[in-house]
């Protein structure tokens, strides 16, 4: 079959890699894709926002399955459009994708369906939000309500930090419309876990767990980013812990969204805090995590395309996962997640079957950076320690003149 991936980042490159090794797949297209994924997909110069051209391309090339990567594209309603055109698509419709598009809506769904999460309040006025923070005290978490590319969250350890974050969002409009409202949440203690599942209606097929590293610098210091690296499995948690999270979080979320009149089809991702009282939801995403996709999909031994079609046809697939560990490290443009310079050559790129590109272009045959997160190098090994050693050995080859990466990805599992 022919498969189309919509998107241009590292998550979409990981999808292209998984589909390219699926026996049932003849051609893999990526729209628009990026220059680094051309060894796994044929990149098509169609923007993620160009619904008419994407639909026409899928029909012209007899695409039998389309997977939508980015959250903004889902919230723009591309899955709705494909479905209206009679095209098979894996990704939630606009209404279901609001589980990620509005943190307030997600909290309301969690309340209605008794999904464990931290206490919260939402505000659109600075004075009211300020008064709430002063009453609650710190530590406390401030989030822009809408999409902010993983950068709209501040874990404030002091009142000063919290009020500065509120000012940035509500007074300085740092995140534009995404910050018209803020959600202020209870600070949860524990260790984070990323748990994704293939979902169609009330059928939930969990993937293997992963752990992301959100902060820019070693020892989880610095600003929040879209993710600086990840690994899978997460040995700190047992299968019983993961089963509990599926039972208390993912399954009720899928059932709840169906009751809301917006059944979910796609990847439902629960960002969890594993507290002493059990798993609690930090956030929901309506698509593959990035960088989680780049460490979870390399562990999938089943044919991804066939798995998704089985699910879409109403059956419950049983994916096979490798027992091996995968650890991946992001190399980002210096200055990320703030401002950074573009068009710097990326020299001495290490070779690996699990090298996933994101913010890159090719100029005169040389990769240059075009985004904040430039590439992610994963390695697979019998243990996480071996995978970590292999990754950093290869990253030593990378010319880091205009790039940086964390040197401690996986430290929680390996300390």
From TrEMBL:
Family that this chain belongs to: Belongs to the GARS family.
Protein name in the entry: Phosphoribosylamine--glycine ligase
Ranges for domain ATP-grasp: 107-313
PROSITE patterns tied to this protein: ATP_GRASP, GARS
Pfam families given in the database record: GARS_A, GARS_C, GARS_N
KW Transmembrane helix (keyword) present: no
Keywords per UniProt: ATP-binding, Ligase, Manganese, Metal-binding, Nucleotide-binding, Purine biosynthesis
GO molecular function: ATP binding; metal ion binding; phosphoribosylamine-glycine ligase activity
Top-rank lineage group of the source organism: Bacteria
Pathway(s) this gene product operates in, as recorded in its UniProt entry: Purine metabolism; IMP biosynthesis via de novo pathway; N(1)-(5-phospho-D-ribosyl)glycinamide from 5-phospho-alpha-D-ribose 1-diphosphate: step 2/2
Needed cofactors: Mg(2+); Mn(2+)
E.C. no: 6.3.4.13
Catalytic reaction annotation: 5-phospho-beta-D-ribosylamine + glycine + ATP = N(1)-(5-phospho-beta-D-ribosyl)glycinamide + ADP + phosphate + H(+)
SUPFAM superfamilies per UniProt: Glutathione synthetase ATP-binding domain-like, PreATP-grasp domain, Rudiment single hybrid motif
Gene that encodes it: purD
Biological process terms in GO annotation: 'de novo' IMP biosynthetic process; purine nucleobase biosynthetic process
């Amino acid at each position: 079959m022919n498969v189309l991936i919509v998107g241009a980042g590292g998550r979409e490159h990981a999808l292209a890699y998984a589909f390219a090794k699926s026996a049932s797949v003849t051609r893999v297209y990526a729209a628009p894709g990026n220059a680094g994924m051309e060894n796994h997909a044929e990149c098509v110069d169609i923007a993620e926002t160009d619904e008419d051209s994407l639909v026409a391309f899928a029909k012209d090339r007899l695409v039998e399955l389309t997977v939508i990567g980015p959250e903004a594209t889902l919230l723009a309603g591309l899955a709705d459009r494909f479905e209206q055109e009679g095209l098979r698509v894996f990704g939630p419709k606009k209404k279901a994708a609001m589980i990620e598009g509005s943190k307030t809506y997600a909290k309301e769904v969690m309340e209605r369906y008794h999904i464990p999460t931290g206490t919260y309040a939402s505000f659109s006025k600075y004075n009211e939000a300020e008064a709430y923070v002063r009453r609650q005290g710190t530590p406390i978490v401030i989030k822009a309500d809408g999409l902010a590319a993983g950068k709209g969250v501040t874990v404030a350890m002091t009142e000063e930090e919290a009020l500065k974050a509120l000012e940035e969002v509500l007074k300085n409009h740092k995140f534009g419309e995404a910050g018209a409202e803020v959600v202020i949440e209870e600070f949860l203690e524990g260790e984070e876990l990323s748990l994704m599942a293939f979902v169609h209606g009330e059928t939930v097929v969990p993937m293997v767990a992963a752990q992301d590293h959100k902060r820019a610098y070693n020892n989880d210091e610095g600003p929040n980013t879209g993710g600086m690296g990840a690994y899978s499995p997460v040995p700190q948690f047992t299968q019983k812990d993961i089963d509990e999270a599926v039972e208390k979080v993912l399954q009720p979320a899928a059932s709840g969204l169906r009751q809301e009149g917006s059944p979910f089809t796609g990847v439902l991702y629960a960002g969890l805090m594993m507290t002493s009282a059990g798993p609690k939801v930090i956030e929901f995403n309506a698509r593959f995590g990035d960088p989680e996709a780049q460490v979870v999909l390399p562990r999938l031994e089943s044919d991804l395309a066939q798995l998704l079609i089985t699910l879409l046809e109403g059956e419950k697939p049983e994916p096979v996962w490798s027992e091996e560990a995968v650890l991946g490290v992001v190399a980002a443009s210096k200055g990320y997640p703030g401002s950074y310079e573009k068009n710097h050559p990326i020299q001495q790129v290490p070779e690996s079957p699990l090298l996933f590109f994101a913010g890159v272009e090719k100029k005169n045959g040389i990769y240059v950076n075009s985004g904040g997160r430039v590439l992610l190098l994963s390695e697979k090994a019998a243990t996480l320690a071996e995978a970590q050693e292999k990754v950093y050995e290869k990253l030593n080859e990378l010319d880091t003149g205009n790039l940086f990466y964390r040197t401690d990805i996986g430290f929680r599992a390996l300390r």
